[in-house]
Structure formats: C-alpha cells, structure tokens
Amino acid sequence: MSRDTNKDLEAFERAALSAEAQRVVEWFDLPSGLAKKLGVKRVGLVELTSNEELMCAGRSRNEPIRLAIELMKEAVRYVDEAKLNTADGSADLFWGSRKQGMSSLRQLILSAYGLIHNPTGDDTANFLRSRQSTI
C-alpha cells in the first residue's frame, strides 16, 4: 500500500470516528420493573443515516418484518454504557437475549425508533397541505 493511500485511509478513519463521536444519542430509561428483570437501566438510540438504512435493507433480504427488526437493531447503539454494533455482533447478542422481559424491551425500542425517525402528525399534515402543482 502506498504512503498516500495509507494517509488517505488514516484521514478517513479519523473523520469517521469524529463524525460518530458527534452523533446525537437519544437515551430512554427502562421502566423500573423491566430494568430489574433485565439488569438494564437505559438504552441509547441514534437516528440512522440513509446508508445505514440501506445496509439494513440488504440484511433483511426484502422481508418487511426482518427489515423492521434490522432497523431497530442498527439504531440501538448503547445499553447502559456498553456500546453495541451490528458489525461486531454485539447488537445481535443483545437483541437475541432470551432473558424474561426482552420482548417487552424490543417493543419499547420499536416505539422509541418510531419517535426518533417519524415526523409528528402535525408535521406530516402541514407538509402534505403544502403541496403545489406546477406545469
């Protein structure tokens, strides 16, 4: 590998790490009973980029239910202070946990994902009302 290529890769890696460090994490506290069952106090989700959404679509093999799961799994980046990642398998380990109450947590994460990624009803209505037709 040439020196220039190596420098380019190092610069790209620094930029990627910097962008990830500046990413907004939305934290959600688990209800106390569920937190006690699972040994988890909170989860942190991020708003996905279009590239991350495309990666999820590829992993889902065009199965709608699998896509929904992949999107949520990709968005969950923290469990308490532990960092999760789909690339290293830690997100799959967490998501596939068989602990009692995990299905409830997955449903809460689904709700959190929707809150982060979907516009409000008013925003949607106002956007659609703004339609203009031109020729």
Task: Walk me through the structure.
The chain is an alpha+beta fold. The chain has one domain. 59% of the residues lie in helices and 10% in strands. The protein is built from 7 helices and 4 strands, in the order H-E-H-E-H-H-E-E-H-H-H. The chain has a 4-stranded antiparallel beta sheet. A hairpin with a 2-residue loop joins strand 3 (76-79) and strand 4. Helix 3 crosses helix 4 (64-75). It is globular. The N and C termini lie far apart (54 Å).
Please describe the topology of this protein:
Layout lengths: L2 H19 L4 E4 L2 H7 L3 E4 L4 H11 L3 H12 E4 L2 E2 L6 H6 L6 H16 L3 H9 L6
Helix pairs in contact: 3-4
Question: Which features would summarize this protein structure in a list?
Answer:
single chain; 135 residues; alpha+beta; four-stranded antiparallel sheet; 7 helices; 4 strands; 59% helix
**What's the rounded overall pLDDT mean?**
90
The SSE order reads HEHEHHEEHHH
Q: Could you tell me how far the N terminus lies from the C terminus, measured between alpha carbons in angstroms?
A: 54 Å
Helix/strand class: alpha+beta
| Share in β-strands | 5-15%
Assembly state of the chains shown: single chain
Which spans have pLDDT < 50 for at least 5 consecutive residues? none
Number of helices: 7
Helix coverage percent? 55-70%
Radius of gyration: 19 Å
Concise structural overview:
This protein has helices spanning about 5-20, 30-40, 50-60, 65-75, 90-95, 100-115, 120-130, and strands spanning about 25-30, 40-45, 75-80, 80-85. It is an alpha+beta fold and about 140 residues long.
